[in-house]
Design goal:
By secondary structure, this protein is α/β, with parallel strands linked by helices. The protein has helices spanning 3-6, 31-37, 49-52, 56-65, 80-84, 99-109, 148-152, 176-184; strands spanning 8-11, 40-48, 69-75, 90-94, 115-118, 135-139, 160-164. Helices cover 28% and strands 20% of the residues.
């Protein structure tokens, strides 16, 4: 079986050494390595906004060099206005159960770019308060730590879902657990980019 046959359709939640303040990111997790592994047909990098935004042009240029989609992970409302002003293709968003965090979603949606709500169970996001045009992510890193069946099943008809790895290290570049959960929930994955 060749690498193309093993690839998952899409992974938009991958961190690299641009997230240099995140202690979970291994020094080997470079854009170059991800390009060599090519574990997904569609790859997007979504490093932590607050770690690199002052070097945005370098970030975007590097990702485009490898054919990656340019995303970012925004940790709550504090940075949403700044993130919305830069030319990202999509946003991964941490939404805690605070009024300001739900308003932060509106800042990102106003860009017209996809907004993916990450870790809703860990962050205690009230999915009833999330606009239905957002995507909900099922990823390997946190989904297994919660009662995903009872937390996500009521919303499978309201939202579109994406599957991600939330990879911080090369050995995390897979989606096995997330794909199992999506299958159990009978969720069809939304592919955001061709």
């Amino acid at each position: 079986m060749n690498n193309a046959e093993c690839r998952v359709p899409q992974d938009l939640h991958i961190h690299t050494t641009f997230s240099h303040l995140d202690s979970a990111v291994a020094e080997q997790q470079t854009p170059e390595l991800i390009a060599r592994i090519r574990h997904a047909k569609v790859i997007g990098i979504s490093d932590h906004f607050e770690h690199f935004y002052e070097r945005f042009e370098s970030y975007r240029t590097t990702l485009k060099q490898y054919g990656f989609h340019t995303g970012t992970e925004v940790d709550g409302a504090e940075y949403t206005q700044e993130a919305a002003q830069l030319d990202f293709e999509y946003y991964i968003y941490h939404c805690r159960d605070y009024r300001s965090e739900y308003r932060g979603i509106e800042n990102l949606l106003a860009t017209g770019k996809p907004v993916i709500i990450a870790h809703p169970m860990v962050l205690e996001t009230d999915l009833n308060k999330v606009p239905p045009e957002c995507y909900i992510e099922i990823n390997n890193r946190y989904v297994w730590k919660n009662d995903w069946r009872n937390k996500l099943a009521p919303f499978t008809g309201r939202f579109n879902f994406v599957i991600g790895s939330d990879s911080h290290q090369p050995n995390w570049l897979n989606q096995n657990v997330a794909r199992y959960v999506a299958g159990e929930l009978n969720v069809k994955e939304s592919i955001l980019f061709d």
